[in-house]
Design brief:
375 residues, mainly beta, Methylamine Dehydrogenase, Chain H, 5-stranded antiparallel sheet, 4-stranded antiparallel sheet, 3% helix
């Protein structure tokens, strides 16, 4: 969400909250740490093959990522940098400069590169996940967010400011097609199980748009009202869950009929959506309420609501599934939550504008983008 679109309620919350000391760093923290490899005591979880999350269970790491450095990458929109957190010590161990207004850190389809989406910098900063070192920025116009078609043939740059989706070659970054959208604030998306259809949210006009991925064309629009933000598919791929931060809950949307089947209240400012490692639950970050709701995928019921405080936003689940990591969008912090108890384990001070953090490495065989929507 862009800085000039932050609502008054969120601004008031910032002013009434003490600022966490996230800018000062010790010499040891500034120094580049030795490379760490991910370790887990959890064996790969067995999930139903029919689930689109069949290969994202606890410990089910691809061989391509097993040697990658274990890091939580946190883009800071206010300082054009990325902070790096060691997930074993829960400390900031380094940071690097990127382009202006970095919004999300996105794994590439083949899991071999992480891209920092430098929105106003009009670039993608590639990061080597083996070392955590950034490379030469790639010129790309208005990359608020970034996705990849499930077959890996297309990169889809969400150009929010320009009201369009740019389909690009994921290797050369040449534009294949620019698809205009007749809505405001297009920003998050997900795909059907067969990969043929993409559903994207338009935060500022209250719309959802359906896109034919092969034809690269909008095929339908649904007005749900409020401010729809994050989008995630159900495990069977038949419906989409859409967080709505103004309606304070989650829509369940049929992508074929383009109808809202039901609405599930969760909490004020429902914003981010993350499936659990066993694909039984969906974590919903309620940014204004300072809580996380746990939805049951099978029934749609809210099984628990965890009081976290602050402004929980986007993030990821640890490889073993025991921790939920979320950025504190307006509190200069990252939250680490125990997924078994809902207890807040750590609040880690980072830059003033943390947004779409990426926990790496993650289970899965390929990436659909955002902050780690793997399958």
């Amino acid at each position: 969400m862009r800085r000039w679109h932050r609502d008054l309620a969120s601004a008031a919350m910032v002013l009434s909250t003490l600022v966490l000391p996230g800018c000062a760093r010790t010499a040891a923290q500034r120094a580049a740490p030795r490379q760490r490899q991910i370790t887990t005591t959890t064996t790969a979880a067995s999930l139903p093959e029919a689930s689109i999350y069949a290969h994202t269970g606890a410990g089910d790491l691809s061989d391509k990522v097993r040697g990658d450095r274990a890091v939580v990458y946190v883009p800071d929109t206010d300082s054009a940098r990325v902070d790096m957190i060691d997930p074993q010590t829960f400390t900031v161990v380094g940071h690097f400069a990127v382009g202006r207004l970095p919004q999300h850190v996105t794994p590439s389809w083949d899991l071999r590169t992480l891209y920092v989406d430098d929105d106003e910098g009009n670039s993608l900063t590639p990061v080597d996940p083996r070392t955590g070192h950034p490379g030469t920025p790639i010129p790309v116009t208005d990359p608020y967010n970034l996705y990849f078609s499930p077959d890996g043939t297309k990169a889809i740059v969400v150009a929010e400011r320009l009201h369009r989706l740019d389909f690009r070659d994921p290797h050369t970054w040449a534009v294949l097609a620019s698809v205009p959208v007749a809505c405001a604030g297009i920003d998050h998306a997900d795909f059907t199980a067969d990969g043929a259809t993409m559903l994207a949210s338009c935060e500022f006009s209250g719309d959802l748009v359906r896109i034919d991925v092969e034809k690269m064309a909008v095929t339908a629009t649904l007005h749900v009202g409020g401010q729809p933000v994050d989008v995630k598919s159900s495990p069977d791929g038949t419906v989409f869950y859409v967080a709505n931060q103004e309606r304070n809950g989650v829509s369940v949307v049929d992508p074929v009929s383009m109808e809202e089947r039901r609405f599930i209240p969760t909490g004020a400012g429902a914003h981010g959506l993350l499936p659990s490692r066993d694909a039984r639950s969906l974590y919903v970050s309620n940014r204004k309420a300072g809580t996380v709701s746990v939805l049951d995928f099978a029934t749609g019921a809210v099984r628990a609501t965890w009081p976290i405080g602050g402004s929980p936003d986007m993030g990821g689940v640890s490889a073993d599934g025991t921790q939920l990591w979320l950025s504190g969008r307006y509190h200069g912090a990252v939250y680490v939550i125990d997924t078994a108890t809902g207890k807040l384990l750590h609040t880690i001070a980072v830059g003033r504008g943390p947004h779409g953090l990426c926990v790496w490495p993650q289970p899965g065989r390929f990436s659909l983008g955002h902050t780690g929507a793997l399958r």
